[in-house]
Amino acid sequence: MNRTSRLFSALLSVFLASNCAAEKPNILFFFVDDMGWQDTSVPFHTGPTKLNRQYRTPNMERLAKKGLLFTNAYACSICSPSRVSLMTGQNAARHGVTCWTLRKDRSPERPNTNFSSSQWPLNGLQPTDASVERSFSARTLPEILRSAGYRTIHAGKAHFGAQNTPGSDPGNLGFDINIAGCHIGGPGSYHGDKNFSAKWRNGDAIWDVPGLEKYHGRKINLTEAITRESIAAVEQSVADKNPFYLYLAHYAVHAPFEPDRRFLPNYQKEKWKAHQKTYASMLESMDHSLGQLLQTLERLKIAENTIVVFMSDNGSPGNNPQNIPLRGSKISGYEGGTRVPLIVHWPDITPADKRTNSPIIIEDIFPTFLEMAGIANEHEIDGKSFTDILKAPETDRSRRPLFWHYPNLYHLPPYSSVRLGDHKLIHWHLTGKLELFDLKNDLGETTNLAGARPAKVNELATLLGNHLRETKAFRLSNRKTGTPVPHPDEL
Ligand code: CA
After folding, report:
1. Averaged over 397-412, what is the pLDDT?
2. Which H or E run includes 477?
3. Residue 430 resides in a domain
4. Distance 254 CA to ligand 1 centre (A)
5. In terms of CB atoms within 10 Å, which end of the chain has fewer, N or C?
6. Residue 341's CB: how many other CB atoms inside 10 A?
7. What's the 251 CA to ligand 1 centre distance in angstroms?
């Protein structure tokens, strides 16, 4: 290469690098906690349901009008597993953080007469250079985005790693900025005048929300405080001409169920139980935050270069009104535990006001965001990018199996499951029972077809068994025999 062509080549690479940096889209991931598939005025089923007509989420409606709505989006059935899958692109059976985390070296599991717990990584997600026992480490999505030039902003609930471990601080897992996140999976209180703490009702200080002291003693809702801080971080990023990844993971609408005083009056005349009115006000509060963020993108003139993704981390808990037509609730192996709202607006790419029935699962977010940011994925992950669906909503992914694994002893029974096409097989660990459902004709999972369709049971049991063996999934053990719960194709 002569001197002129070397100079030209150098100039070209500088131009390409600066051009790429300028074109990197911002990503706003608006992640809601414990919000069920029907806990919104946006219909995710074939038409509006009773809950759709009761709840008020006008900003979700706005986003759905602009973007693509997923009717078959899935997460894990509980908080920490979903968050670790999101951060690492790995299926819960592989990362092993299958139950919720909080206290170091302590499992939230309950004693069982017949089965004992596994050695699952109860200290949660940890940085790759940390040495914490019983934990899981992998390069995280924000680490990769940060190394590609993104400012990575964490706001709200982290819940990645246990208290007093490096993983409890999002700053150790790839985030440049941490607003209000730590080991906790729920806030002490949503009220600023309670200091976002449970101490006023003699609750444990472990639930205190960190970093929002300036709002203490003030009549402000936690969702509003986190929204204001998030908007300030976005403004700074735009002022600094830095593309951002804003992971806005609200504590809402997780317990404790406390009304947002701004929105409760909207429901006072309804003939509902007090709990549902409270919950409706929390949903509207969360939706109001979405509206404030969307307005901010418009005001800062970055809406056309910002991808907005709305998702929940698991189904609605059993305290809330049943998410009919789905069966089950948070932690359950039925659809009510795992099927969640998902809306994506990728400017100039996603068609407006469209729906897709293509199934995706939470670990798919990792490779999708990397592809959106123009970053090659060099990591061995279970997630599959769904940019093909975002470009063409009719994309058929029915031959790709989706897996869930919850081998833990809490208040609902442990299970593993697989969905392939319209069929879903659930293996219940404590009883060995297999249930087969045809989701196309029986979304409510009312009729077990395991006896009627043995070939389908065999096919799915083999798929699930192979997946659990390949991922070296943790399993409960039988106390009498000491042997692990058999895989579904070994029954
Ligand atoms: Ca959750």
Report:
1. 96
2. strand 477-478
3. yes
4. 7
5. N
6. 23
7. 9
**Ligand 1 centroid to residue 78 C-alpha, Å:** 5
Q: Does 65 reside within a domain?
A: yes
Q: Final residue of a domain: which of 361, 391, 421?
A: 391
Provide the domain count of the chain. Answer: 2
Provide the domain limits for residue 345. 25-391
Q: How far is ligand 1, taken at its centre, from the CA of residue 86, in Å?
A: 13
Give the list of residues 6+ apart from residue 228 with CB closer than 8 angstroms, or none: none
| Cα 6 to middle of ligand 1, angstroms | 54
Instruction: Give the tens place of pLDDT for each residue, 445-479.
Output: 999 999 999 999 999 999 999 999 999 999 999 99
- Find the 341 Cα to ligand 1 centroid distance in Å: 13
Q: Give residue 253 CA to ligand 1 midpoint distance, Å.
A: 9
Same domain, 451 and 329: no
What is the spatial distance between Cα 32 and Cα 35, in angstroms, rounded to a whole number?
6
In degrees, rounded to 5, the angle at the alpha carbon of residue 235 between the alpha carbons of residues 231 and 239 is 170
Q: Which of 448, 444, 445 is nearest to 434 (CA)?
A: 448
Residues 112, 175 within the same domain? yes
In angstroms, what is the span from residue 48 Cα to ligand 1's centroid? Answer: 24
Q: Please check whether residues 328 and 368 belong to one and the same domain.
A: yes
* Ligand 1 centroid distance, CA of 34 (Å): 4
- Do 317 and 456 lie in one domain? The reply is no
217 and 88 together in one domain: yes
Q: Ligand 1 centroid to 157 CA: how many Å?
A: 10
340 and 427 co-located in one domain? no
Going by C-beta distance under 8 Å and a sequence separation of 6 or more, which residues neighbour residue 200?
189, 194
For residue range 212-227, what is the model confidence (pLDDT) as tens digits?
Answer: 999 999 999 999 999 9
Ligand 1 centroid to residue 410 C-alpha, Å:
15
> What's the CA-to-centroid distance between 156 and ligand 1, angstroms?
13
Residue 33 Cα to ligand 1 middle (Å): 4
Domain boundary among 391, 421, 447: 391
Distance 82 CA to ligand 1 centre (A): 8
Structure token digits, residue 81: 């597993």
Considering the domain boundaries, does residue 130 fall inside one? yes
Same domain, 446 and 340: no
Q: Are residues 361 and 440 in the same domain?
A: no
Q: Do 97 and 81 contact (CB within 8 A), yes or no?
A: yes
Could you report the per-residue pLDDT of 116-133, keeping only the tens digit for each? 999 999 999 999 999 999
